[in-house]
Design brief:
It is globular and about 40 Å long. About 45% of the residues lie in helices and about 20% in strands. The longest helix has 11 residues. Strands 1-2-3 form a three-stranded antiparallel beta sheet, with no helix packed on it. It has a single domain, classed as 434 Repressor (Amino-terminal Domain) (Orthogonal Bundle). With about 90 residues, the chain is α+β, with helices and mostly antiparallel strands.
Length: about 90
């Protein structure tokens, strides 16, 4: 499941959480991130598995601060090209 954005029921983009990738690069675990941010394991698991409908700015801020990264390091914008789908 991804965060899918539509206009007039037509898919225009997808926002994917790619937090797992930066955790792997930094040799960190979800448990470690939970302990250092105060964000529950369950909430982090929902984010990592792209099963969330939104992420609050303060949560993004905590994650970026602890991992010393930018928002674009944990979120990916995927535009949908209509010509590719036809």
């Amino acid at each position: 499941m991804y965060n899918i954005y539509t206009i007039n029921k037509e898919v225009i983009s997808i926002i994917r959480v790619i937090l797992r990738e930066i955790l792997d690069k930094q040799n960190r675990t979800v448990y470690w991130l939970s302990k250092h941010t105060g964000i529950t394991n369950n909430n982090l698991a929902f984010m990592i598995n792209n099963k969330t409908n939104g992420i609050k700015f303060d949560v993004l801020d905590k994650i970026c601060e602890v991992l010393n990264c930018n928002v674009q390091d944990i979120l990916e914008y995927v535009p949908i090209n209509k010509q590719e789908n036809t």
